[in-house]
Batch of 2 targets.
Target 1
Amino acid sequence: MLPDAVTSTGITVTKSSGNLFMVLAFTSDNGSMDGTDIADYMVSTLQDPISRVSGVGNVQVMGSKYSMRIWLDPEKLRTYALMPSDVTSAISAQNADVFSGSLGALPAADGQALTATVNSRSRLRTVDQFKAIVVKSDSKGAVVRLSDVARVELGSESYTTASRFNGKPASGMGIELASGANALDVSKAVEAKLKELAPFFPTGLGYHTAYSTTPFVKISIEEVVKTLVEAIVLVVAIMYLFLQNWRVTLIPAIAVPVVLMGTFGVLSVLGYSINTLSMFAMVLAIGLLVDDAIVVVENVERVMSEEGLSPYEATKKSMGQITGALVGIALVLTAVFLPMAFFGGSTGAIYRQFSVTIASAMLLSVLVAMTLTPALCATYLLPIEKGGHVSRRGPLGRFFGWFNDRFERAGDRYHGGVRSLTSHRRLGLAAYVVILVAAGLLFWRLPTAFLPEEDQGMLMVQVKLPSGSTQQQTLKVMDQISEYVRQQPEVDSVMAVAGFSTGGSGQNSGMGFVRLKDWNARKASASDIGMRITQAMAQKFRDAQIFAIAPSGIPGLGQSAGFTLELQDLGGAGHESLVAAREQLLALAAKSDKLESVRYASLEDAPTFDIHIDDAKAGALSLTLSDINSTLSTALGSTYVNDFVNRGRIKTVYVQGEPTARMLPQDVGRWSVKNSDGDMVPFAAFSTTG
């Protein structure tokens, strides 16, 4: 049920996250290659190797490869009584591989000493060969060649996008992650592949990373790992401060890496990756998982002190007393965190790994506390005489005496305060009510958000000109935006792409990828820089919508920070009513002090130009509707004919009207259709426009 235009072109299905995690800009440093040359090299040589890198879901080249472009002249076609379909038919017939059998094929005559394949025709390769295609000839020897009715050149397959990197012509390559792929690993693999291919690049061709989410992910992981190490050190230090014995401290300290290793194993089995959410859960879990081991060690110490049992006997008796409590603690904590793993939608995607990590660490910690920790207590602790205590002598013995004295005094004061408060119950209840009211007020007053804003070192600039604007106008605006952005002291590079945007592609849309300098080299945050750019562009371009926005805080969760609201016409009021409701919503949102940078993310309705064909007149003039339709689609659009060979690769052949013959409404009248009598009939004879 797909349209013929789709089935003839083909369908490509890819599994990817749908969000660009890396954009590469390729430029010619010596100016020997323009944007089309660069894009053709990327499509022909780089796109496939990068696509085959493990973890890459989709590679989108912001440009296109070479194509043989046939630009038709309507006046010359009319002079020679030709239609665009005559040209495409001639190209199809003369640009083809025709194998006409072979010489010496079996069964062969006796004594045959040669065999060879016969090629009567092969695909064309050069512009001159296409120019020499015979479009029309007669018995008198008159020949009309393609060059007589059209301009032939090696151009671009598509002219929908144009790219600049720091003001220089460039071509971009957007890379999307495959579902479940690790951004850091894929980024390293892509960089390695590019370094492998770089020695074979044309002279002067280089590449730059214009946009990448991996530096932020990498530094986030590094910071979380740093926090994890700090948390382990602090936990061990606090345990030693209160337990005041290295043997006693070492037993719960051993539980930390054991439980963490087991948690990593659980995440691996479930197919999760190491990311900021799972690492944050690890940091939080460290303070919880040592509690079980501390309970075991302290209870064993208490039993030895009170009853004078050996470490083995004390451990055996202690575990009989506290096993139920350990299991209860694990179940309670798991019951608190595990339900988050079953959330649906984006909330579930955010908190699922966090929940599973915490729950796994809690269950493993009680398992370690019931197995490894008792074994260590029974074999590693020193005996204690009845009524004695664990030895706290050592280099810090005097400090521990001072600390214990101060801690006991603080405990006594706290105990006295609690006793005083409980003796004045009304005052205690009043204080409790005040705390509840204060907590409620703070909860009500504090601003709410789905995700916090993150400075990822990147910005995206969405540009949308009024509907009907041309690519040339968009490029001028994009160049001015790039010039302003490059002047900002916090900006490292800018890549501007006209004709491409996450909100829709068109001549009036554009996208800028801004890479900021390292966090240590600037004081302003990405959101502040984006707001500065947005405000400056709003003052400079009154009729354009220009927003500098930060990427989504979580890769894959939307195109940018903030949220998206979609309107639905549930009542069937129609397109015009839906547009009116949209404009009303945008106007109200602009007045709200709780919202900023409110924009319409998709493209506006494009202007249309209608050509009305009078079927009765067309029939009277002996015209066929198929000839009329093919002439219009080829002249004003473009028609894919077939393929040709260029530098050993297959490229496309397109036929289209000259740009000067399809710019204005009156240009439609310059085209003609041939009727069954061989006469050329102009469109004005059987159609009207409006």
Target 2
Amino acid sequence: MALNESTGKTGSPKADKGLLKRFVSYYKPHRKMFALDMAASILISLIGMVYPKVTNMMIKDFIPNKQLNAIIIAGVAVLVLYIARLLLRYFVQYYGHMIGTRMQAQMRSDLFAHLQKLPFSFYDDHETGKIMTRMTSDLFDVSELAHHGPENILTSVTMFVAAFIYLCTLNFWLTMIIFACVPILIIVAMYYRKKMRAAFTERRASTAVINASLESSISGIRVTKAYTNSEKEKEKFNVGNNMFIEACRKSYDAMGKFHAGSSFITDIFNVVILLAGGIFLYNGLIDAAGYATFIVSVNLFISPITTLIGFMESYQNGVTGFSRYLEIMDVPEEEDSENAVDAGTLEGNIELDNLTFTYEKSEEILHGVSLSVKKGETLALVGPSGGGKTTICHLIPRFYRLTGGDIRIDGKSISDMTMESLRRNIGIVQQDVFLFNGSIYDNILYGRLDATPEEVYEAARRANIDGWVRTLENGYDTQIGERGVKLSGGQKQRLSIARVFLKNPPILILDEATSALDNTTEILIQHALDELTVGRTTIVVAHRLSTVRRATEIAVISQGSVAELGTHEELTAMPDGIDSRLYRLQCREGDSDTGDLSESVGF
């Protein structure tokens, strides 16, 4: 499921056609405005043809025949048309860019919605900064292509054809001589187009690397300062920065060769006109007025070609950005099974039947794990780090798909339940609490968005945080900063517990919810957790003996298997059991309630 950061080549005509079809589909909601925009663009091009035509009339007729009124009328008519072109250009620039912006917004909205539906495994493999790059700078270039692409192509083709026809009326053979240079220009453009695409793709990838590095470094700035490792972070950032410089060098090298080569070819046009036109005039094949008009008019022939040449840069940017956008959009979403139904409100009888699980590109993590916990009971999972405890917690809400075995709740396989209804019945409190940048109230309300203010306050009271919140100057409207940076670990944890109280699920998963807290704070949190677990089926991953002893049953998970299973009393009674060893050790230390189980038994 990993994305290739250097993607950009579509690879085949069929793929290019599919890419174009998907791109064009975003124009559908804007069909009327797009049609008006293109019509205005064509009118702008046609108005541009008036000047050489009037110039020819002036030189051949009005000036030689001293028709002053005709000269003035012609000048006024051209001015009126130019005023009309002024308004048309504003229309094209404003509404054309708005079409591109709305298309960009729709793509960003589609991408965000798609990201919400991608499985955990996608985020395991992709850095936030790289994903953000695809949503921002990549899509900006797509919007520029959406506006300038059709406009440049349509106006350039219109001007090219109209100029070609008009030049033919002035002198057919001289026009053919100039037209013969066009294939050379096309060959040069196509050759450098391939090099530009590869170079621009590499530059995109390097930009994503920089953004990922920035996101990581800024998020971890407090750790960096604590360990005085700013130089190391600069070194890591410079790796991406140097990649960007090199990628830019390659892209600008390709761009420079492209523009220099194509500009040289257009310069050749002028040489051809000068020599061929001079020879034609010398031999009487064209008169002076026709030659002068031809020189003026030929710019209308060259201008659309140079426009298309300049457009190649934004085209490469846009195509590369859209390809990278589609790369994420084509990642399969989480999907319910074909026969999945709404689970309704579950009671909470959980069975883990011979579970096996393997993360992508890793060895098997779980090997035939079978456990059960009845409604209202608590199952404690203990064991060494990396043994598979958290993986089990992630499998119950179907954050990952099972490799083998099954999980049943109330006798129904979780694969037969819609993921939304399954997760609606499960509350999770983790050691690493994630809080959103906003107010205390909003973060508690996240547990159930339709809750009333009184329900939010009641959830806070039950989580033992209401009293503290009300001492704050802004109370529940207090802003907590990014990821709750303004709060202590215990305050964050109690907010997350309040959120679960508000959700009020029948099943509760506590993944080392108190392991990072000091003893005093843990006691406060534990009281809240004790109330939270009442009447709920609870699966708790814990190292603290105080938590383990309250469990209905304890399962020791080691190396992906159930090593021991039983109540605290049963495991204590086993001479070589984990609980027995812990109890004896803590009795010697004079502490039988708050010891760290994993450390005490050599985990």
